[in-house]
Every structure is written in structure tokens, then in C-alpha cells.
Design brief:
heterodimer; A: 411 residues; Rossmann fold; B: 260 residues; 12 helices; lyase (chain B); amino-acid biosynthesis (chain B); Trp_synthase_alpha_AS (chain B)
């Protein structure tokens, strides 16, 4: 293996779907022909102006894009209070929590359902952790009149009851999954089992930039609207690029969507924030910090696993980050050193959640609260004229019960 | 002659039996399959996330891991089996991550030492063969691939390339242990596959009864039974060997005499 720096960080994956040693197509043979079909169809769609026009039109008029770019003045000032003289970077938010359905997940679902329709598929399945992807999938299925089955771990069904009800209101069938720890990983296993038995008519809308090729690529491309917009907005508002991008990472779709359009801007640093749960020496969901390369759910990537390759149960207070793997492009970006990765514990995310509520009047989801907590550590070390841009990838309505319980508040 | 070519003879079909390693008394269960008349043994390597398996084999995986089964135990079961049964082909079946965790060379060397003849890696598509295939072939171990109803003629050569031992035809698009395909479709697909290869073709997924096994044995080189056996291990625990022997004997009689 050479340590040579690539000419561009934006031309992955290769024709076999590999990001360096990561990614690939590790699926049962039944799915392989379909995966190859999807790849052909996606390649054709990318080259079709009508596909892009329909995607852009739906994002503008149905999702509500572009989402605002917002300077968080009081959040910035509050962090400066405890910063050394001259320190305390400006904090800006890409407001993807204002999207229809309350998170970035809908960007990807719009793209994938258009692909499903192109391929003549008549039934949609999805997995969901926090329920945001399930809600977004149920939403686009209602919009296009397709039946929708969402697999969701039983544990998550219980801790995300409002989203379960939302999916049902939207006409989706929510199937609680009881195997394993009954969270996102197990929901994904069950969705794959459904797919393998229904390949002829079913399209699987994967919710994050992971899974077999071409999913990591196409999810990234659909989510890149975040970074493309943010880059233009930042240039227009400030005449410069940000110094640091920050985003939370479960599978990593909002982070790759923000990062990818900036990867070849050498002066833009990037920080991906994993969930350290109860701590990296205890139960957590930080697969880059605490895992090893392995193969699961169709791709090679960093996984939480034991010495025999058995997959460990992840833990995070945020159901959306509670997954023992990570998208393969992040694994590659870590190994190349282009992106820095850190992790934030449950308690730190809870503090950041409350801090944003009080300083900005924005209730964030627990997922971006991890990114906020990382900013609270990083901004006071940076100069005042430096700019941090974070993706506020979801709103916190779904999390208020979890937060209340964690804070010992009875509702 | 390899153990595989002995097991798949031209004049009668072979019975291929699957159980999960570390689920129940593995040695006694394996011996019962051989006593019942199994021609090839598939020993499942347990995995936390068996996403191509139905409920019966999922539960077997979890029972095995719950009992503390490690990769070292699977290798020990294989090695002990080979010492007791020098002539019966032994195939390890499972998922990629436990197989490549310590590197493909480590895995190939240790299973070769244990006397394993072939490996079925469910989630290693031919496209990802470099992760395991070269290491297996270097040690003389057969990578056994799966073909399915969705594997068309254009794709079959890629599936067959680098594989040996036998080809496993998965007769239904789905997970293990569920519905069974119509015999006409099985016959057509086996004939189609055999136009591309001289390898024996064994057919599995959803085979539970002697009657089903007999019908398949008329049109294929082998019949694979898994979930029905694994369910007996789950139901009878320590008493499973006698049950396994009886079911295997009835399946073996049906398979071996199907073409008479």
C-alpha cells in the first residue's frame, strides 16, 4: 500500500465501488443482479437532465430548499465568554432541521424514490433508527403513492414513539424487529431479508451513506446538496470559505453531504463527530474511534466487533447514531487523514442540546447535539475571525421525551 | 479423487446436511448426520448478524453465540470431525466478517489444518473474491458459490469463475427455511446451470421433507437440508442426535433412491 496523497478526494469510489480498501458489494448472490441493475440505472439517471430537474424541483417546492445558512451570534458570544482573549470562532449553522420532516434524511429519500420509479419498482422498504429516515421514506411513499414497509428495532419503536405514529399516519407499515438488541443494526438485517425475498418488485431506500455499492455513492450525491448550498451561501454572505466543518456521524450521510463538496478545498478542515455513548471504554457507537475494519451490511468499513468478528452492540442516547458501523467513505477519509474524527459522550450531547435551546431558541435533535458539543470544545481554541460551519441536521421534537427522561423530568 | 467427487457420484444424488457449530452437542449431532446417511456436511459458523437466514438458523446462531462459541471452537469441531470421519466432505458455511477477521490467510491455513474441504461465504459476492478466494485456493480449499433464480446466464460465468467442489443453487429468492420453489423451475434452472459447468449442482432452501428431497434428487446432483435439522437441535437440545439421525435417514433414503 502506498501512502501517496490522492489528486482529488472527490473522485471515489472506483468502478468496483471501493473507497480505497473500503466499500464494495458484500451481498448475497440473490441481491447482486439487482445491485448491478441499480448501478446502471443510477449512472443513467445522473446523466439525465430530466432526473436532476425533477430532483431539484421537489427539493425546492416540497422539501423547502435551499435551507438557510445562519450565523449563531448568541451561541458564538456565549462560547467567547469563557474563551481566551481573541479566541472564539464564529459559529454558523446549515439549517437542515428546517426541511420538511425535520431532518436531512428527506434529501436522500427524494432521490431514491425517483430512482425506484425509474426502475419500475412498486413497493418500498426501509430501515430506521431514530425514525427520521422512516418518516422521510413514509413521506415520499405517500407523495408518490407507493406502499411502504419500515423495519425498526423494538427498542427504538419504544423510545421514538412519536415518529412511529407519524409513519403510521403517512400510511406506512412499521414492523418492530426483536432480534439482537432490537436497534438499527437489527432493523437493517430484517430489511435485507425482506429485500432478498422480494427483489422483483421492491426498492430498498437505505437511509445512510452505507450498504453495498452504489448506495454510499448515491446517498452521498443526494445529500451533497447540503454542502453545495452551504458553499455558495457562505461565499455570498462572507466572501470566504469556512475554516472548519463539523457534523455528527452515525452512518454519516449528513456529514458526507456537507463535507464532500469541500473535500478539495485544502484550507477547509473537517471534523466528524461520533457518539461516545457512556464512554469509549464502555458502551458507545464510535466505530472509527473504537472499531476495526470488517464486513457488514454490504460494505467493508470500520465496525465495532470482537476478536472473532462478531458485531458488538452500539449504544448512544441518540437513536440515530446507535449503529456499530459507519459509511465506507468516512473510513477512507479517516485513513487518508483528510477528515478528523472525534467523539462526544451522551452527557456532553445533552448539555449542548440545552445550551442551543437557551442561546438560540432552536431545539436540535440529539444527533447534531453531538456536533454542537464538539464545537463547544473547539470554538474557544480558534481565533475570533475564524468560521465554523456545522450541519444542524435535525430538529429535536422527536427527542424531547428522551431528553426529559435523561434529565429526570416527568412529563 | 477429492472427497467431493466421491460424495457426488454420477448414479445417485448426494444429501448435504447443515447444522450450526456450537449449537447443542455439535460432535454428537454431526455423527448422527453421518450415521443417518449424509454425504456432505455443512457446518455453520455462527455470526451475530446472519442477514440471509430465516428465523430457524438465526436462532441457532444466537444459541451458539449465547453458549460462548468462538472461532477456535468451530475449528476444533471441524478438526475433531475430520479425525472421526476421514472421508466425508466438510464445508464451513457462514458470513464474511468472522472469516476474514484475522486475515484470509490465517483463516485458510487454520481450516486447511482442520481438514475442511470447502467454504460457502454467503455475503462474499464473486466481485469481492480477492478478500478470501485466493487464500482458500492456495490451500486447496474449494470456494463454493451460490447461484440463485436471479443469477442469469450472463452472470453465471462470473459466479463459477474460481469456484470448485460443487455449486449451491438457492432455489428461492429469499432467506433460508421458508417456502420451496416449484420443481419445474428447479429442473429448468439446474439444467441451465449445467450448460455452464461440470461441477455438481446441489439444490437447497426450503427443503424439509423426504418427498421434497426425492423430487429434487431426480433433477439435481445434491439436495441441501438445513433449517429442518437446525429446528430439531433447537427443539430437542441434548436429545437431538436421535432425532437428527432419523430425519437424515429418511431424507438419505429418498435422495439416494430417487433415480431408481
Amino acid at each position: 500500500m502506498t501512502e501517496q496523497k490522492p489528486n482529488s478526494f472527490r473522485n471515489q469510489p472506483d468502478e468496483r465501488g471501493h473507497f480505497g480498501q473500503f466499500g464494495g458489494r458484500y451481498v448475497a448472490e440473490t441481491l447482486m443482479p439487482l445491485i448491478l441493475d441499480l448501478e446502471r440505472e443510477y449512472t443513467a439517471a445522473k446523466a439525465d437532465p430530466a432526473f436532476k430537474a425533477q430532483f431539484d424541483d421537489l427539493l425546492e417546492h416540497y422539501v423547502g430548499r435551499p435551507s438557510p445558512l445562519y450565523y449563531a451570534e448568541r451561541f458564538t458570544d456565549a462560547l467567547r465568554e469563557n474563551a481566551p482573549e481573541g479566541k472564539g470562532a464564529q459559529v454558523w449553522f446549515k439549517r437542515d432541521e428546517l426541511n420538511h420532516t425535520g431532518a436531512h434524511k428527506i434529501n436522500n429519500c427524494i432521490g431514491q424514490i425517483l430512482l425506484a420509479l425509474r426502475m419500475g419498482k412498486t413497493r418500498i422498504i426501509a430501515e430506521t433508527g431514530a425514525g427520521q429516515h422512516g418518516v422521510a421514506t413514509a413521506t415520499v411513499c405517500a407523495r408518490f403513492g407507493l406502499p411502504c414497509v419500515v423495519y425498526m428495532g423494538k427498542t427504538d419503536v419504544e423510545r421514538q414513539a412519536p415518529n412511529v405514529f407519524r409513519m403510521k399516519l403517512l400510511g406506512a407499515e412499521v414492523v418492530p424487529v426483536t432480534s439482537g438488541a432490537a436497534t438499527l443494526k437489527d432493523a437493517m438485517n430484517e430489511a435485507l431479508r425482506d429485500w432478498v425475498a422480494n427483489v422483483h418488485d421492491t426498492f430498498y431506500i437505505i437511509g445512510t451513506a452505507a450498504g453495498p455499492h452504489p448506495y454510499p455513492e448515491l446517498v452521498r450525491d443526494f445529500q451533497s446538496v447540503i454542502g453545495i448550498e452551504a458553499r455558495e451561501q457562505m461565499m455570498k454572505r462572507t466572501g470566504r470559505l469556512p475554516d472548519l466543518l463539523v457534523a455528527a456521524i452515525g452512518g454519516g450521510s449528513n456529514a458526507i453531504g456537507l463535507f464532500h463538496p469541500f473535500l478539495d478545498d485544502p484550507d477547509v478542515n473537517m471534523l466528524g463527530v461520533e457518539a461516545a455513548g457512556h464512554g469509549l471504554d464502555k458502551q458507545h457507537a464510535a466505530s472509527l474511534a473504537g472499531g476495526f475494519p470488517g464486513i457488514l451490511h454490504g460494505n467493508k468499513t470500520y465496525l465495532l466487533q470482537d476478536e472473532d468478528g462478531q458485531i458488538a452492540e452500539a449504544h448512544s442516547i441518540s437513536a440515530g447514531l446507535d449503529y456499530p458501523g459507519i459509511g465506507p467513505e468516512h473510513a477512507w477519509l479517516k485513513e487518508t487523514g483528510r477528515v478528523e474524527y472525534t467523539s462526544i459522550m451522551d452527557g456532553e450531547a445533552l448539555d449542548a442540546f440545552q445550551f442551543l435551546c437557551r442561546t438560540e431558541g432552536i431545539i436540535p435533535a440529539l444527533e447534531p447535539s453531538h456536533a454542537l458539543a464538539a464545537i463547544m470544545k473547539r470554538a474557544p481554541e480558534m481565533d475570533r475571525d475564524q468560521v465554523i460551519l456545522a450541519n444542524l441536521c435535525g430538529r429535536g421534537d422527536k427527542d424531547i421525551f428522551t431528553v426529559a427522561e435523561a434529565l429526570g423530568v416527568e412529563m | 479423487m477429492t472427497r467431493f467427487s466421491n460424495a457426488f457420484s454420477p448414479d445417485r444424488a448426494a444429501l448435504v446436511c447443515f447444522i450450526t457449530a456450537g449449537d447443542g452437542d455439535t460432535a454428537a449431532n454431526l455423527d448422527a448426520l453421518v450415521e443417518g446417511g449424509a454425504d456432505v456436511i455443512e457446518l455453520g459458523m455462527p455470526f451475530t448478524d446472519p442477514m440471509a437466514d430465516g428465523p430457524a438458523i438465526q436462532k441457532a446462531n444466537l444459541r451458539s453465540l449465547g453458549a460462548g462459541t468462538k472461532t477456535a471452537d468451530v475449528l476444533a469441531h471441524a478438526k475433531a470431525f475430520r479425525e472421526r470421519h476421514p472421508d466425508i466432505p466438510l464445508v464451513l458455511m457462514g458470513y464474511a466478517n468472522p472469516m476474514v477477521r484475522r486475515g484470509p490467510e490465517w483463516f485458510a491455513e487454520h481450516i486447511a489444518d482442520a481438514g475442511v474441504d470447502g467454504v460457502i461465504c454467503v455475503d462474499l459476492a464473486p466481485e469481492e473474491d480477492p478478500d478470501l478466494g485466493p487464500a482458500l485456493r492456495a490451500k486447496g480449499i474449494s470456494p463454493i458459490r451460490l447461484a440463485t433464480p436471479t443469477t442469469d446466464g450472463e452472470r453465471l460465468p462470473a459466479v463459477l469463475d474460481g469456484s470448485s467442489g460443487f455449486l449451491y443453487y438457492v432455489s428461492v429468492a429469499g432467506i433460508t427455511g421458508k417456502q420451496q420453489a416449484a420443481i419445474d423451475s428447479i429442473e429448468d434452472n439446474v439444467a441451465r446451470i449445467k450448460r455452464h459447468t461440470d461441477l455438481p449442482v446441489a439444490v437447497g432452501f426450503g427443503v424439509r421433507t423426504a418427498a421434497q428431497a426425492e423430487a429434487i434428487a431426480k433433477v439435481a446432483d445434491g439436495v441441501v437440508v438445513g433449517s429442518a435439522l437446525v429446528e430439531l437441535v433447537g427443539e430437542y437440545g441434548a436429545e437431538a442426535p436421535a432425532q437428527l439421525r432419523d430425519l437424515t435417514a429418511s431424507l438419505a433414503e429418498a435422495v439416494h433412491n430417487a433415480r431408481k
